[in-house]
Design a protein that fits this description.
Elements (H helix, E strand, L loop, with lengths): L1 H10 L6 E4 L6 H10 L8 E5 L5 H9 L16 H4 L4 E5 L6 H13 L1 E2 L8 E2 L3 E6 L3 H6 L5 H7 L2 E4 L7 H14 L8 H9 L5 H16 L32 H15 L4 H8 L3 H10 L4
Parallel strand pairs: 1-6, 1-7, 2-3, 3-6
Antiparallel strand pairs: 4-5
Length: about 300
């Protein structure tokens, strides 16, 4: 994730549109906010809308605004997100779900730098940077005629792929501690709890990790978050902490190495750089070993 954020910082000031692709909950909005925070627009608004969350008629009004009386219930004129984000950044989350009719209006807004409120004919000039997020392959959506090709190439100046959390083991401990602090918790995680966090594959990505930390923060009542405070799915037998070595039980050299590596990693609270230093191996070598154990 560090390399991804560094690349985002490089392209932040280009003011070009960026497509962020990754699994649901992988942190695409985090990257979008980093792009905004490192751009010349950082003092202006950052707004986001989920294109899959609203029906097309309401989404059009949300994006472009509407005139008074434009439809039933429109008792007053209202600015849309394009106008509200003037000078700043607008994130279109799940952009692949944008209806084709709205795709045409979005393309015109990007090309001409102007929008029209629903129910009005006069254009309004807008100056907004567009970022898009999606878990879908937009090129495939273009081939399936679900996404306009001209809009795709207008948006796809840069593409940043946000990897799932299971491929970013180094991020887990830092994110978990950050989320714990956000919950107003002054403590930390026990070694066994951190080990469980590191071993879990996180199908729900960063969002699932945040909820797991909240679960632990509440149940620990302000004390150290132990393995017993974490959600049950993190404690399945296959993910449970390694049992203590039994005297007289012989194992293969490969299994002995695996146990030792994981115990050092657990003692280092998941910090792979520290674990690699203690083990006397390179950071990349440790990463390969963990990948072989199904942990990276």
């Amino acid at each position: 994730m560090k390399e991804l954020l560094e690349r985002a910082a490089v392209i932040a000031n280009t003011d070009a549109s960026v497509v962020l692709r990754g699994e649901s909950g992988s942190g695409k909005e985090v990257v979008a906010r980093a792009l905004h925070a490192n751009s010349t627009r950082r003092l202006k608004p950052f707004l986001a809308v989920n294109c899959a969350a609203l029906p097309s008629d309401l989404l059009e009004s949300e994006l472009f605004g509407h005139a008074r009386g434009a439809f039933t219930g429109a008792q007053t004129a209202r600015k849309g997100l394009f106008e509200s984000a003037e000078g700043g950044t607008l994130l279109l989350d799940e952009v692949a779900e944008l209806p084709l009719a709205l795709q045409a209006k979005l393309l015109r807004a990007l090309q001409d730098g102007e929008i029209r409120r629903v129910g009005e004919s006069l254009p309004v000039n807008v100056n907004v940077r567009i970022l898009c997020a999606t878990h879908q392959n937009l090129q495939q959506a273009v081939r399936e005629k679900r996404f306009r090709e001209d809009l795709f190439y207008r948006l796809k100046v840069f593409t940043l792929v946000v990897p799932p959390l299971r491929e970013r083991v180094d991020d887990i401990s830092a994110l978990a501690l950050m989320f714990l602090k956000q919950e107003g918790h002054d403590g930390s995680f026990s070694a066994r709890a951190m080990s469980a966090l590191l071993r879990y594959p996180w199908p729900g990505n960063v969002r699932e990790l945040q909820n797991a930390v909240k679960h632990g923060a509440v149940l620990s009542a302000g004390n150290t978050v132990g393995v017993e405070h974490l959600p049950e799915e993190l404690l399945e037998p296959a993910l449970a902490p390694l049992p203590p070595e039994s005297e007289g039980v012989l194992v293969t050299l490969e299994e002995a190495e695996r146990r030792h590596v994981l115990r050092v990693l657990e003692a280092c609270h998941g910090q792979q750089t520290d674990a690699a230093r203690i083990l006397g191996v390179g950071r990349t070598t440790l990463w390969r070993k963990l990948k072989g154990y199904g942990l990276s």
